[in-house]
Amino acid sequence: MFSEADLIRFWQLNVELQGRPILHDIDLTIRKGEVVCVVGPSGSGKTTMLRTLGGFTPPSAGRILFQGQDIRKPRQDIAIVFQDYGRALLPWRNAAKNVELAMEAMGKPKAERAPEIMRLLTMMGLGAHADKYPSQMSGGMQQRLQIARCLAQQPSMILMDEPFGALDAMTRQTLQDEVLKLVRLMGTTVFFVTHDLEEAIYLADRVIALQPNPGRIGQIFDVDLPHPRDQIATREHPTFLKLRRQLFDYVKSAEQ
Ligand SMILES: Nc1ncnc2c1ncn2[C@@H]1O[C@H](COP(=O)(O)OP(=O)(O)OP(=O)(O)O)[C@@H](O)[C@H]1O
């Protein structure tokens, strides 16, 4: 039922909130190292799906499994990056101290923290900004910092809820490439919620399109595009253009 390569299994998952069915019969397996993007009309349950994975919203029926174990509460090996970096970061701590927060929560010995903090900040392009406070950083830098802090948890999986929605187009593309780099270097599994269909195709190995009322999986699109992805070449690739058309048509019909 569960293979070694599988990390996550949604099994006949149903979620009701305040007596209303929000997610209906979700069946989905996510493999280790896979990037899964979730799209769908507003209210189709994308965030709710992410919250069940994060251990914040329990199933009303069915199961949600991490390596075969039910997810019943937030886990250290599943990190979450929120869209609202302003609220996710602590304004009274500088960048290094924000990253250290995750290490404090894990109980990592103090002596081991400093080199690891610098490694993560450098990896996210913030090596020269360790002493800066969030208010002294651009939106893109703050989002990088939030990702660095997540990585300090050494997660096997990162959940991202519209993480780049508030950023300008150029910063957004740079951070998309950072996410793909992480996956390549660290084998992290990514569950990424977005409204931006092109972003979904660019990042994903599979795009899950939800349908609303109640939220359910409408269609799964395999993204058969070569790696490494490239902001120009990938977006001009015939497969990208074909998928973009299919996905736009699909989501438009789901919204009607
Ligand atoms: N705590 C809650 N109690 C009751 N209903 C809720 C709760 N949280 C979400 N919902 C409802 O669940 C449905 C799905 O919400 P969810 O946020 O998962 O959708 P979404 O696809 O992420 O939407 P959006 O694209 O607008 O962010 C919506 O109708 C929402 O009103």
TrEMBL record:
An MF annotation (GO) of this entry: ATP binding
Subcellular location: Cell membrane
Record's keyword terms, sorted: ATP-binding, Cell membrane, Membrane, Nucleotide-binding, Transport
Domain of life the protein comes from: Bacteria
SMART domains to which the protein is assigned, alphabetical: AAA
Main localization category: membrane
Family: Belongs to the ABC transporter superfamily.
The protein's name in its UniProt record: ABC transporter ATP-binding protein
